[in-house]
Design brief:
This protein is α/β, with parallel strands linked by helices and about 425 residues long. It is built from 16 helices and 16 strands. The strands form 4 sheets. The chain has a 7-stranded mixed sheet with strand order 8-15-16-14-13-12-11, sandwiched between helices. Strands 4-5-6-3-7 form a 5-stranded parallel sheet, covered by helices on one side. The protein is globular.
């Protein structure tokens, strides 16, 4: 992301994903970079130091797009590593990329980038099977935004390191961080007014341009109402009948629109975590990729409105999920993110990170103190799932400490 450095000079903020990018390029001739719009994909591709010798082509350029459709081989006349940004605008270009990679015996490198799922326009992922690695760029992680190392607390607990008591000094306002979310342009806005204008523009552009580029939505206002209803119910088990009533669309269209939101990386679906014979919910929960967008769509247009604990708690969950997603995007094998909720008592753990038989539980509380009583859901979860090594309760205090056996209170700022 570019930020003012002084005298109108812009400074590039490097992204955590760059290290993973360099590793992947050593083993794959093609890298496909996806992620929501405006999270910094184009900025990374144009300014990252390791890509400075690459040729950069964007299909936002009408001439480049026309040539991609009419003369794709001519577009790639120069035999050098090439970046194709906004590649979703011409998915048939993948066939030419495949041809050139194979012709060069996998020595020619390409990076394809797009704001949504590049296969949305019937361009099969199989075209680049065995040649491409898919990477996902999220918005700014909290620690990434503050210039901290990618190796943080989640790595420590995931890889079984000892958790030590410590005090975390921070004067960052949690409500401000939740409301701003993870979009670089919003996070770095110089005022709340500018941040709000950018959030409004982001949603309007998505509905009026991005979605219409993919499918024709007959009633854009209904689509927006669905987005608002999902934002208001973030972190809850969403029922399509209720969503259908809220937005004035059929269940079929609601299902189709939610698929579009997921395919364009704006909406995340979390499924229920359950072992055999366990009576736990499997119904999906939905979260936004960005707590700032979720707040805006839910009608929370100022930080003050997030000061109410019953409002803040839900969007703090969304904010913590952002941090988990940012961490997961850097892993060699991406873990699955789920939630756990028993049908009988309704006992719930907000997030379960699971991979290859290993799992940890994460509960989110908006309070400044955690007591032993707050650990009851996590204690039940650990008791019934011996494969889960530890439980974390994220809260708004400033100290890491054990609250119960294998359960730790952890400040939100360490994520």
């Amino acid at each position: 992301m570019l930020v003012p450095k002084g005298d109108s000079i812009m400074k590039y903020i490097s992204r955590w994903l760059e290290t993973r990018f360099v590793e992947v390029l050593k083993s794959h001739p093609v890298v496909v970079l996806t992620g929501p719009r405006q999270v910094g994909k184009s900025t990374l591709l144009e300014h990252a130091e390791f890509l400075r010798d690459w040729r950069y082509i964007t299909l936002d350029d009408p001439d480049a797009l026309e040539q991609a459709r009419e003369d794709p081989k001519g577009l790639f006349w120069e035999d050098r590593p090439t970046i194709i940004d906004e590649a979703q605008r011409c998915p048939e270009l993948m066939l030419t990329v495949k041809y050139l990679v194979d012709k060069s015996d996998r020595r020619r490198n390409f990076i394809l980038s797009g704001s949504g799922n590049i296969s949305l326009r019937q361009a099969p992922r199989e075209t680049l099977a065995g040649r491409a690695k898919y990477l996902h760029l999220t918005g700014f992680g909290y620690r990434e935004m503050h210039g901290l190392s990618a190796q943080g607390f989640l790595d420590e607990i995931w890889f079984g390191q000892e958790i030590k008591d410590s005090n975390i000094k921070s004067n960052i306002d949690v409500a401000q961080s939740i409301w701003r979310g993870c979009l670089p342009g919003v996070v770095l806005a110089s005022s709340e007014k500018i941040a709000l204008e950018r959030l409004s523009s982001y949603i309007d552009t998505y509905i009026q341009r991005d979605i219409q580029d993919l499918v024709k939505v007959r009633y854009p206002q209904h689509f927006r109402r669905l987005m608002e209803a999902l934002a208001q119910a973030t972190g809850w088990e969403s029922v399509q009948d209720e969503l259908s009533k809220a937005c004035g669309e059929t269940r079929t269209n609601v299902s189709r629109y939610m698929s579009l939101l997921k395919d364009t990386n704006l909406l995340y679906e979390l499924k229920g975590y359950a072992v055999k014979s366990e009576r736990a919910y499997k119904q999906s929960k939905y979260f936004w990729f960005d707590s700032g967008s979720a707040c805006f769509l839910a009608g929370i247009h100022s930080v003050l409105e997030l000061k109410k604990p019953h409002v803040r708690g839900r969007y703090l969950e969304n904010f913590i999920l952002q941090q988990i997603l940012s961490w997961a995007s850097l892993q060699l094998i991406a873990p699955e993110i789920l939630y756990w909720k028993l049908k009988a008592q309704g006992t719930e753990v907000d997030f379960v990170i699971s991979s290859a038989g290993k799992a940890i539980g994460i509960e989110v509380k908006s309070s400044e103190q955690i007591t032993f009583g707050d650990t009851r859901p996590m204690r039940e979860f650990l008791k019934s799932h011996p494969q889960v090594s530890k439980g974390i309760i994220v809260y708004t205090g400033n100290k890491i400490y054990p609250v119960a056996t294998n359960i730790y209170a952890v400040p939100w700022t360490v994520f």
